[in-house]
Design the sequence.
């Protein structure tokens, strides 16, 4: 699963040949296909969410789409989309991705994996306006949506799109968002926590473990392999358009990485705090 070697030596001849032989952008027909997939995925998720919105209204006995209705339907949609992306990503990462792939093949090719990019862009295009206008998402999540659209747009449009890494970054990591959606559902329904405290505790634990595993332990070596290769490609380029695109690519990926570590620190604090409370409770008992 982790690329080998993680940190590679700079090969001037290899990167010179890439800039000489590989066009900056994918062919126009590939762009049309990507745009079609992006709009289709965004549309399907939107329709699915609107159907869920109506179902949640009926379930909650509400005549209007209240904030709680929006949140519940949003979380269910997130759960199902993330479950799909996570499972497909895990399949590709295990059966399709080689850890000893050549440096060239990590940078160029894997055009069929553009669907991961399209899936993430379409997903974020749906999530961004809902998060902004209907469910009051945090600033960090809004930044996350925008950053994912930026990196996804690069991997879907340029020849050196580093699509080798997309099953992990656009697929595998989303599996940690499945227990997150369940945890948020508990938080939005405090009576659930009172009725099922054990289930809530287990969901929190599963979320913390999966997040730290895929978004810190696995993310770190895979990201730094990706980061080193993109940096080498940027360093060796003398084409302004390529330099701009790769700079945006690197900046957006760094923002996403910082967010992972920021959220991870909060999770570790919560787990430690929860452990301390349990110990204190046992002593009192």
Sequence:
């Amino acid at each position: 699963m982790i690329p080998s070697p993680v940190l590679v030596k700079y090969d001037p001849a290899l990167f010179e040949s890439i800039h000489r032989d590989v066009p900056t952008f994918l062919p126009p027909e590939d762009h049309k296909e990507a745009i079609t997939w992006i709009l289709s995925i965004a549309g399907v998720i939107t329709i699915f969410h609107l159907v869920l919105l109506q179902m949640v209204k009926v379930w909650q006995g509400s005549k209007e789409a209240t904030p709680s209705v929006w949140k519940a339907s949003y979380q269910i949609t997130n759960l199902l989309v993330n479950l799909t992306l996570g499972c497909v990503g895990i399949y590709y990462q295990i059966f399709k991705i080689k850890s000893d792939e050549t440096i060239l093949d990590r940078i160029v090719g894997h055009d069929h994996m553009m669907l991961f990019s399209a899936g993430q862009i379409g997903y974020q295009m749906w999530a961004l306006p809902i998060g902004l206008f209907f469910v009051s998402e945090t600033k960090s999540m809004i930044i996350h949506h925008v950053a994912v659209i930026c990196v996804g747009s690069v991997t879907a449009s340029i020849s050196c799109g580093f699509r080798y890494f997309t099953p992990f970054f656009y697929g595998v990591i989303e599996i940690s968002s499945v227990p997150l959606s369940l945890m948020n559902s508990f938080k939005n329904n405090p009576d659930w926590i009172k009725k099922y405290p054990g289930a809530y505790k287990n969901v929190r634990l599963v979320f913390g473990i999966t997040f730290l595993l895929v978004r810190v332990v696995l993310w770190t070596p895979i990201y730094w392999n990706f980061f080193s290769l993109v940096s080498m490609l940027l360093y060796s380029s003398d084409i302004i358009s390529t330099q701009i695109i790769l700079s945006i690519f690197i900046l957006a990926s760094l923002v996403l990485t910082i967010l992972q570590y920021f959220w991870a620190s909060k999770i570790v604090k919560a787990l430690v705090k929860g452990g301390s409370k349990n110990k204190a409770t046992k002593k009192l008992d």
The mean pLDDT is 94. The two ends are 45 Å apart (CA to CA). The longest helix spans residues 240-284. The CA atoms of residues 38 and 177 lie 21 Å apart.
